[in-house]
Amino acid sequence: MNEPSLQSELKKKEPFESLEQEALLNLLRTADELNSLFSSLFSDHGLSGPQYNVLRILRSAGGAGLPCLEIAGQMITRMPDITRLVDRLENAGWVTRSRTDSDRRVVLVKITPAGLAHLAKLDQPVRALHKQAMSPLTTDELRELSRLLTKARQSPTS
């Protein structure tokens, strides 16, 4: 099976300036396509990708909740304004905020029962979409892809 190249997909007449450029643009193109699939799923459930990510992080944290800065540190993509993101989730009734007794400056964010229920509705569709999106790759290819992406993030610029 002959797979189309990024150059043909982009209808680029000239070759890429470097292999690094081609690989990075390929990564960005793939991320955009996959992100589009997940954005559509989350949108159907009244969420953005980052909102889903916050709910997922809070569910993993358990009942104690997490400070906003810790949530921001666990996000898949960097979010400059986690406060506004939490505002929207709080307005929807999916999270609550409270100050800690030990340090009134720290705001803990906790997922509500409604947030847990909403997130549970997405568990199976998200797993199915993971499988569907990555179905062209074998188990060994998935392991190698993960290894290479982790290695790429270790570059001096990160």
Could you characterize what this model shows?
A 3-stranded antiparallel β-sheet has the order 1-3-2. Helix 3 (49-61) crosses helix 5. With 158 residues, it is mainly alpha-helical. The longest helix is centred in the first third of the chain and has 26 residues, at 19-44. The model has no long low-confidence stretch (mean pLDDT 89). It is elongated, with a radius of gyration of 19 Å. It contains 7 helices and 3 strands, in the order H-H-H-E-H-H-E-E-H-H. The protein has one domain: Winged helix-like DNA-binding domain superfamily/Winged helix DNA-binding domain (Arc Repressor Mutant, subunit A, Orthogonal Bundle).
The CATH class is: Mainly Alpha
CATH superfamily: Winged helix-like DNA-binding domain superfamily/Winged helix DNA-binding domain
Q: How many domains make up the 3D coordinates? A: 1
- DSSP helical segment count: 7
> Share of helix among residues?
55-70%
Which radius of gyration do the C-alpha atoms yield? 19 Å
* CATH fold-level name: Arc Repressor Mutant, subunit A
CATH architecture: Orthogonal Bundle
* Average pLDDT score: 89
Based on secondary structure, the structural category is mainly alpha
Which helices and strands appear, and what pairs or packs with what?
Elements lengths: L5 H4 L9 H26 L4 H13 L4 E2 H7 L7 H10 L3 E5 L7 E5 L1 H22 L4 H14 L6
Antiparallel strand pairs: 1-3, 2-3
Helix pairs in contact: 2-6, 3-5
